Amino acid sequence: MNGFEEVHNFLTSWYGIVLAAIVAYNVFDYVRVKVVMKKLNCVGPTVESDGFFGFRVIFTLLKHKREGTLVDFRKDMELDTLRFRVAGTPMVITRNPENIKAILATQFNDFVLGGRHDHLGPLLGDGIFTLDGSGWKHSRAMLRPQFAREQVAHVKSLEPHIQLLAKHIRKFQGEPFDIQKLFFRLTMDSATEFLFGESVDSLHDETIGFSKSAIDFDGKNEFAEAFNTSQIYLSIRALAQQVYFLINNKEFRDANAKVHKFADYYVQKALSFSTEELDKYSQDGYIFLYELAKQTRDPKVLRDQLLNILLAGRDTTAGLLSFTFFELARNPDIWSKLKEEIYNRFGSGDDSNLEDITFESLKKCEYLKALLNEALRMYPSVPQNFRVAQKDTTLPTGGGPNRDLPVFIRKGQTVAYMVYALQRDQRYYGKDSEVFRPERWFEPETRKLGWAFLPFNGGPRICLGQQFALTEASYVIARLAQLFPNLASFDDEYPPRKASHLTMCHQNGVVISMT
User: Fold this and answer.
1) Which residues span the membrane (predicted)?
2) What's the burial of 475, exposed, middle or buried (CB within 10 Å: 0-12/13-18/19+)?
3) Which of 222, 241, 362, 391 is the most exposed place for a label (fewest CB within 10 A)?
4) In what order do the strands lie in the sheet with 414-418?
5) Distance between CA 392 and CA 409 in Å, rounded?
6) Is 504 helix (H, G, I), strand (E, B) or coil?
7) Dist CA 510 CA 498 (whole Å)
8) What H or E segment, with its residue span, contains residue 120?
9) Which positions ≥6 away from 119 have C-beta within 8 Å?
């Protein structure tokens, strides 16, 4: 036997061994799953064709993402719960409220964030939105006191930002403009002031008479753009699932570095103060970072938590405000009802009673609350989310011929829950579920929604900052109604195209006029 034959026989024998091992593993796994399913009294999820190992799905999702229809893609699916593959990763998607309740609450310990730390880690590090287990518990315990009522209630700190926003609106002199761009700058300014003690002053520009102030350190003016760039890449990494590591180009890395440089500047500034000095500097107003610095002196912990909260607080509120004004401009009757409530309580124009606009008084504005609920229903800030099973488990319903049997979820499987689709489902919101109608929130049926309304998630991971976001949005809406009674829409396309990154906003902006 010559050398070639020996090599050939060796390789052939190993091919046979490998093939036999693969077959044996699959047979064993099939039998194991059947045994577990019988033990758990459940069935497998309905499987949807997904092309070659789910790589076709990746291109389909990217196409819808590019066209601004990603969140609508799964809204009209025939089944509430089904399985398909994304880039080789088996994924179950569901819009059933009982299944979502199980994932987020009643079976909370069965599910973890899975690959989110890998997907988002380059920007967010080890923070409340990327950690599981003890790390998450520690983060939440550290952050919860920072969202106590005393901090949330300070609405007056928003007024200087409102005045700058009003200057930008007035410069258009009744001509159409994109208010979404201004809302993202507004919330960036208010969020950085709340978190770092200083605003990035993105609303300060030459168009309203400001010269760019001398920056305190290199990178301040680059921060907002870099933060936006990083988020776009993070959303693509999350969409790519197991092949997320391919999304790691120089633009992404440079943007992350700029964001970290900005945050590190303020973290080092806070760490240079003693606890007594932190108390002294906080007397003029609450500063999130300074309160955290009293609990830990670890610069990475401080930076990571700050960026996690900034990501959650800035974009979600900007998106909520943008979608709200998009609908208000299209619905003059709703705008009139809102103005009537605001004017009766707080006055209008030169007769506005700013001292009367407080955390408590805003919560008593029932139509304003209904308006925000409806905006959050039709345009949830996080339209879809996911968890990964950390053990073999089940979802309560969706399997079998009648779709009412428990569904098997194997360890390591990704489960996506579709909040956007759920909150437009006619079974819970009636035949007019696609209609923007705040009045539905005064009807008895909405009190029975339970887990069919999830704008701020649910269970142990429910959003810590929901009152903060609602208070800020309420104040901005009330003040703009006082200052600009005339509102008109210049958006012809409906429904709007929606950009779905980590959060959702209008893909093409919100073009309106205000006087």
Assistant:
1) 12-31
2) buried
3) 391
4) 81-86, 89-94, 414-418, 384-389, 111-112
5) 6
6) strand
7) 11
8) helix 116-124
9) 234, 237, 238, 244
Q: Any idea what the CATH number is for the domain that residue 283 is in?
A: 1.10.630.10
Q: How far is CA 40 from CA 35, 241, 394, 417, in A?
A: 9, 28, 8, 22
Question: Are residues 26 and 71 located together in one domain of the fold?
Answer: no
Give the containing element (helix H, strand E) for 512: strand 511-514
Domain count of the fold of the chain: 2
Could you give the 3-state DSSP secondary structure of residue 417? Answer: strand
Tokens of 434: 């696609």
- One domain, residues 48 and 30: no
- What size, in residues, is the chain? 515
Token pair recorded at residue 127:
């923070």
Q: Please indicate, yes or no, whether residues 23 and 85 belong to a single structural domain of this protein.
A: no
Residue positions forming the annotated binding site for heme: 463
* 118 and 108 inside one domain: yes
Of 352, 196, 208, 210, the closest CA to residue 263 belongs to 196
List C-alpha distances in Å: 366 to 386, 438, 442.
Answer: 33, 10, 9
Q: In which domain, by residue range, is 362 found?
A: 41-514
| Claim to verify: residue 36 and residue 46 sit in the same structural domain | no
CB 46 within 8 A of CB 82: yes
**CA–CA gap between residue 178 and residue 157 (Å, rounded):** 25
- Binding-site residue ranges: 463
Q: Are residues 29 and 154 in the same domain?
A: no
**pTM (two decimals):** 0.89
Is there a single domain that holds both residue 415 and residue 291? yes
Same domain, 31 and 130: no
CA distance 208 to 187: 18
DSSP 381-414: SS-EEEEEESSSEEEEEEETTTT-EEEEE-TT-E
Compute φ and ψ for 398, nearest 5 degrees. Answer: 120, -5
